[in-house]
Design goal:
Blueprint: E1 2-5, E2 9-13, E3 20-25, E4 29-33, H1 39-52, E5 57-61, H2 67-70, E6 80-84, H3 85-88, H4 93-106, E7 122-124, E8 129-133, E9 136-142, E10 151-156, E11 160-164, H5 179-195, E12 200-203, H6 212-234, H7 238-245, H8 253-271
Parallel strand pairs: 4-5, 5-6, 6-7, 11-12
Antiparallel strand pairs: 1-2, 2-3, 3-4, 8-9, 9-10, 10-11
Amino acid sequence: MIQYRSEHVTVFQSALYQTTSTVIQTKEMVLIVDPNWLPDEVEATKQYVNTIKGERDTYLLFTHGDFDHIIGYQAFPDARVIGSSGLHHQSEKEQTLQMIREFDNKHYISRNYPIEFPRVDIVIHEDGQQLPLGDTTMTFYLAPGHTEDGVITVIEPLGIMIAGDYLSNFELPFIYQSAKAYMHTLEKVERIFADHSIQLLVPGHGQMTADSSEMKRRLDTASDYLDRLCEAVLTNNESVLDALYKEHAFLSAFTTACHKENVSIIRSEFMGE
């Protein structure tokens, strides 16, 4: 379904995990972000892009390499791919593709495009790297923590921030790579808010927002949660850890596993276990 639409931005939202896929159009280009999940949802995004693109170049931005975010890659074979150096040099490409195959096979899903890992044409190596396209400029910031290969993108002069799996309105931090890196990324987000006039924030899961106070609330919520989680782990406070787990939305076996992974990574990084 379409969650949000304006002159330049359309945010599609999957029925699965409230995952977003964003299409941004300017005079110079059409940018597609993380096309996903189900075949009909990917097809709807594709048909929309075909309707609006005209003679403009198309670009495909991947916020990170989780399988749900790259699953629609080859539905847009003519687009130039933008991704982080971590995505470009991803060492677990085959494992990620196998997760897609397992998902499709489990649910009897057939797709009309091949399942492949993105081949990155424009590699983001460092914070502040820019891609100017006429009057539009994309500025990129490496965003490790959730995964090693994350990237946050600011699109100006529209003031759009594509946050990947950070700053959701409901999803608390899932640490798949590093708690310390996640904290540094949140500190980086604070600097991004100070350095750019963000008019629209689009997370990888959940609702976009144009409210600056809501953007700050999401940042503060994630930072506070990680601080309290680290403290509970370091003091081995099981009752607080249980309470922190229950703060997650949509409690399930999935959130249980993610919480356990959060605790395990924090113990490893901060306690050497």
